[in-house]
Amino acid sequence: MRWNRAISAFLALSSTVSVAGATASAPREVLPFIADDYPRALAEARARKLPIFVEAWAPW
Amino acid sequence: MKAFVFTDKALARRTGQFVWLAIDTEKAVNAPFLTKFPVQVWPSFYVLDASSETVALRWVGGATVPQLQKILDDGQAAVGGRGRASEQVLARADRLYGEGKNKEAAEAYREALANAPRAWPRYARTVESLLFALQASHESEACATTAREAFTRLRRTASAANVAASGLGCALELPAENPRRADLVASLEEDARRVLVDKDVPMAADDRSSVFISLFDARGDAKDEEGKKRVASAWASFLEGEAARAKSPEARAVFDSHRLSAYLDLQEPERAIPMLEASERDLPDDYNPPARLAAAYKAMKRYDDALAASDRALVKAYGPRKLLILQTRADIYAAKGDSAAARRTLEGALQTAESLPAGQRSEGAIAAIKKKLEATP
To answer: Residue B211: is it exposed, middle or buried by C-beta count within 10 angstroms (0-12/13-18/19+)?
Structure first.
């Protein structure tokens, strides 16, 4: 579908590149993201009584 | 978002308000999360109520920093159950949307809009979510009509691009016999052009880029080859300008995907080679630059170079994306006239697709590979 073409392309653009490929010049994220560990985030959120903000992304 | 939004210092004050979780949907370790919260669009953002493990809010696609601030405010309100009636309805719509119940979510978003005060600060976000829910429910006419109506109010905001692009995409989906099709396509194409002319309105580069894509498709729908070329050329120039302003290789490479699409649409794939070579050099662990090089070389009929690039991509690739790289590889073999290698590659892709864990496994992807295999001699 045309929409899908647009959506998939803009999503690809919105996405990011491998963190492993980061260089010293890259600006750093200011938020303390937990990477790829939902159980840890859930436990922490319950203990601190906070909601979880999730960024679901792909490296493409 | 990682390169342009999550680096903004204005977000630092939010640190203690949420637990922040990044999920790479390609990693098998995240399959259980994806089973619980299926991701349909990348990137997707969720605010989860940790006590009940339910989605309080979902946002799909990119966002500017001010948009993200609003999403965070709304997410907090939705979890806390605060707000007036329209906010309560909005929270219900967001929950339904987060559960992938797009049809029900669209109804609830409409109800929230109908009950909202005149200058409702959540109007833009609600409209954008409604448009996506309508598109996902294949309600193309309602989607296009909603976009048309909302554009007048949102044309000077960061939402203008998404509203125009999604509305135009929906209008183009309408069947030819729909009596409103021509009018909706024409007016939404005009709206989309206005977005591109209005350079003062702050909006994410990816949103502006999506407008070019919709306009290109609209010219294709009109069978206007010259118009298509004009749009693709302007799109490529825009992306090149954005890439030139990028402050790091990561930020520059964010534009590679769209630039490759624009160059392919212009039938000038060779223009992609220098940028992709630079990205492969600067980001040696990233499989995307060689994967894209394979596609560019294939379009140039440089099949051996395409296969070599595909080799380099496959060494680094993981997760469901590997399937796309393998399918491109099969296409390269087929174009080269090596059907046996194309078949072998597709058989490998099928095996990989079937071995993905629940949450990453896609029946649609498996069916597509099988169909391709059947068509390969």
So the answer is: buried
Please name each of the domains of chain B with its CATH number.
Answer: 1-134 (3.40.30)
Size of interface A-B (CB pairs under 8 A): 254
Of B20, B26, B51, the CB nearest to A33: B20
Give A2-42 pLDDT, tens digit per residue.
Answer: 334 433 433 343 333 222 233 334 457 789 999 999 999 99
Q: Tell me which chain B residues have a C-beta less than 8 angstroms from the C-beta of A59.
A: 24, 26, 286-288, 321
Interchain contact B32–A (C-beta under 8 A): yes
ipTM: 0.79
Q: What is the pTM of this model?
A: 0.82
Closest Cβ–Cβ partner in B2, B6, B285 for A20: B285
Which own/partner pairs from B70-76 qualify as long-range (CB within 8 Å, at least 24 positions apart)?
A: B70/B121, B70/B122, B70/B125, B71/B45, B71/B47, B71/B125, B72/A53, B72/B14, B72/B17, B72/B18, B72/B47, B74/B47, B74/B122, B74/B125, B75/A51, B75/A53, B75/B18, B75/B47, B76/A51, B76/B17, B76/B47
